[in-house]
TrEMBL record:
InterPro entries, sorted: Chloro_AB-bd_pln (IPR001344), Chloroa_b-bind (IPR022796)
Keyword RNA-binding: no
Protein family per UniProt: Belongs to the light-harvesting chlorophyll a/b-binding (LHC) protein family.
Name of this chain's protein: Chlorophyll a-b binding protein, chloroplastic
Chief subcellular location: plastid
Residues annotated as signal peptide: none
Amino acid sequence: MVSLHPLVCPLSVSSPSSGFLRHSLWSRCFRFESCVQERRSGFVIKQPSFFCNASWQELAGVLLFSAIPFTTVKAIANSPIGESLQRKMEERKKFAVENSSKFKALSNEARKESFWYGEDRPRWLGPISYEYPSYLTGELPGDYGFDIAGLGKDPVALQKYFNFEILHARWAMLASIGALIPEILDLLGTFHFVEPVWWRVGYSKLKGDTLDYLGIQGLHFAGSQGVIVIAICQALLMVGPEYARYCGTEALEPLGIYLPGDINYPGGPLFDPLNLSNDPEAFEELKVKEIKNGRLAMVAWLGFYVQAALTGKGPVQNLIDHISDPFHNNLLDSLNFMK
């Protein structure tokens, strides 16, 4: 049930994990009342959610701003500058293609010599005897023979799942940095943000707060808008990169950018500015390190979610609390408190 009328809904709850609900929530536009029923001490709470506080002029401005990258790229590609860049790129591409077979042979040789690939690679059960899937041959980075659900029986599906895994692993690693660094800087007193705790940033937007990038007063693009506008910006700005990822490494060639690698490891000056792929042995090992750290980051985010739900604090503050009193500030104690 949704009602389109101004609403003030004072909430009062005592659970520390829900402390963010202790405020009256307002919106200036699109005031939605979502009839979400929560049982707390026999009471039924109607929890409002607020999405947008922008005028149509601001929305139009956001749409135009988001379209700038696409129009700029198209204009450059169709201009004399773009044609010149493409001619130079074709020369580099011809040289790279001629040497691609040599580089591939060196990569295959590096995998044969590597500890992390092939039949003698480490397995997820270690020395314990186990019949590992025959279709997991150790060709992919981070292949420990783990597939208890049989998802990789189809080679096409296996490659697809690997593409998805490494994509989410990279997002998780970037997001972990984004969640930890603001809280660390705030606790050290080096830099103060409007809201340093990662999960409270979204809640700040639901309250209608204005977020300044890097804590610099007045430096905000969509930071003064509601979550709908921010979601629109995110969707529009991600269309280009996602379309390029879908098209493959040739997507940037109209701009004169040649990517010699594949969809997961494009390489080139844009994705490999340090030329780490020039050493095949080191590069194959770096692939394994990347996926291992990415998996840890994805598991870490599961921990971030649970911590936020149980304690209402950020991961750094939770770590500090645990170190200061490990016998009382731990998962079991938090679960007992929630009963």
